[in-house]
Write a structure and sequence with these properties.
By secondary structure, this protein is an alpha/beta fold. Helix content is about 40%, strand content about 20%. The chain is built from 11 helices and 14 strands. The protein has helices at about 10-20, 40-50, 60-70, 85-90, 95-115, 145-165, 200-205, 235-250, 270-280, 305-310, 315-330; strands at about 1-5, 25-30, 55, 75-80, 120-125, 170-175, 180, 215, 230, 230-235, 255-260, 265, 285-290, 295-300. The strands form 4 sheets. It has a 7-stranded parallel sheet with strand order 3-2-1-4-5-6-11, with helices on both faces. Strand 2, helix 2 and strand 3 (about 55) form a beta-alpha-beta unit. The structure holds nicotinamide-adenine-dinucleotide (NAD) and uridine-5'-diphosphate-4-deoxy-4-fluoro-alpha-D-galactose. Uridine-5'-diphosphate-4-deoxy-4-fluoro-alpha-D-galactose binds near residues 198, 268 and 291.
């Protein structure tokens, strides 16, 4: 029996594929490569020395997706595939709703039809909106501020309704905080298409001389140094959480929600300093205006994931920075030849 990994060529998916292969799981990967490159999959093979089937299929194409189910014995799914850029989702809401929601509906129809009623879904801390306090626990009120976040919240609700209608389902909703870093080998990592939106890929490009300086988006937030505070988590730790979630799904049904973070908040300036210390590189920055929609502080209480899944983050901020830098040094243009 195989685990279907949607979006396995992407940043988090490729790291999860490595962990699943290292744990001797049978996997089948589906990705339309709209935001990734096939080379990431070659690198996964190189790291693990193991092979797997890959289908370049769009989740929106239900017939082609069904072929994957016909040709393989799928019994569960890790669902990473989706579009994830907050700004783009505000410009192109229909694209985001269609891709993320319809893609998930197609997937769930087939998982149901083929009796593979176990899904681990990539949700996000964005579903907590502007939290009233920190650290955030899973029972905090939910709200969103952009179409991307709406798709995450809607999919969470769809998956819950699915379970309510059919208790054979096992649904694990993993709410990721801020994934950063890369595999220790430096063979896989985050490869943003254009100018990076997120902090770490931007810092990495400044440190390597590809960009002149980091613009710090505001220093008048209600935090220890005025810059935004987030819970950064090493992508390999995050990848491992999926293995723990699927092991649990194999044992029991239900819907469960887990924060996947470290429980520690770092400000933008803390990260700049940590990056410089960990790598010896200089990160030039200038204080700029606030970015619309940003919140002061967001970090997890990750105890539930530890208690129930037996998962906790192992890498600290130094490893996250070092590994991001190592990936950038070895692949200055990402997966471009
Ligand atoms: P990514 O863009 O690197 O990976 C997503 C993959 O899905 C890509 O390879 C893309 O080609 C594929 N994809 C998108 N739409 C598809 C479709 N219709 N059919 C088939 N494949 C499709 O993103 P990531 O950072 O690896 O994120 C993975 C998941 O985790 C996403 O659902 C994302 O929303 C969620 N998430 C990411 C973050 C983050 O900061 N990276 C935070 C919280 C949640
Ligand atoms: N920041 C800067 N300069 C930059 C980029 C970011 O100062 O060039 C700051 C932001 O203002 C924020 C912090 O760095 O204070 C982190 O910003 P990111 O864009 O890296 O991450 P966000 O917390 O804004 O959002 C990310 C994902 C969302 C996801 C959320 C929670 O982009 O999709 O984490 O998982 F929902």
């Amino acid at each position: 029996m195989a685990v279907l990994i949607t979006g396995g060529a992407g940043y988090i998916g490729s790291h999860a594929m490595v962990e699943f292969l290292n744990a001797d799981k049978d996997i089948v990967c589906v990705d339309n490569l709209c935001n990734s490159k096939a080379m990431a999959l070659d690198r996964v093979r190189q790291i693990t020395g193991k092979d797997f089937k890959f289908y370049q299929v769009d989740l929106l194409d239900i017939d082609k997706l069904e072929n994957v189910f016909k040709e393989n014995k799928i019994d569960s799914c890790i669902h990473f595939a989706g579009l994830k850029a907050v700004g783009e989702s505000c410009e192109k809401p229909l694209l985001y709703y269609h891709n993320n929601i319809t893609g998930t509906l197609n997937l769930c129809k087939l998982l149901s039809k083929y009796g593979a009623k176990k899904i681990v879904f990539s949700s996000s801390a964005t579903v907590y909106g502007k939290p009233a306090s920190v650290p955030i626990t899973e029972d905090f009120p939910l709200s969103t501020t952009n179409p991307y976040g709406e798709t995450k919240l809607m999919i969470e609700r769809i998956l819950k309704d699915l379970w309510v209608s059919d208790n054979e389902w096992s649904v694990s909703i993993l709410r990721y905080f801020n994934p950063i870093g890369a595999h220790k080998s430096g063979l896989i990592g985050e490869d943003p298409r254009d100018i990076p939106n997120n902090l770490l890929p931007y810092i990495t490009q400044v440190a390597s001389g590809r960009r002149e300086f980091l613009s710090v988006h505001g220093n008048d937030y209600n935090t220890h140094d005025g810059t935004g505070v987030r819970d950064y988590i090493h992508v390999v730790d995050l990848a491992k959480a999926h293995l723990c979630a699927i092991e649990r799904a194999n044992k029991q049904t239900g819907v469960e929600y887990f924060n996947i973070g470290t429980g520690v908040g770092y400000s933008v300036l803390d990260i700049v300093k940590a990056y410089e210390e960990a790598t010896g590189a200089k990160v030039n920055y200038k204080i700029g205006p606030r970015r619309p929609g940003d919140i002061d502080e967001c970090y997890a209480n990750p105890e539930k994931a530890y208690k129930i899944l037996g998962w906790k983050a192992e890498n600290g901020i130094e490893d996250m920075c070092k590994d991001a830098f190592n990936w950038q040094k070895k692949n200055p243009n990402g997966y471009e030849e």
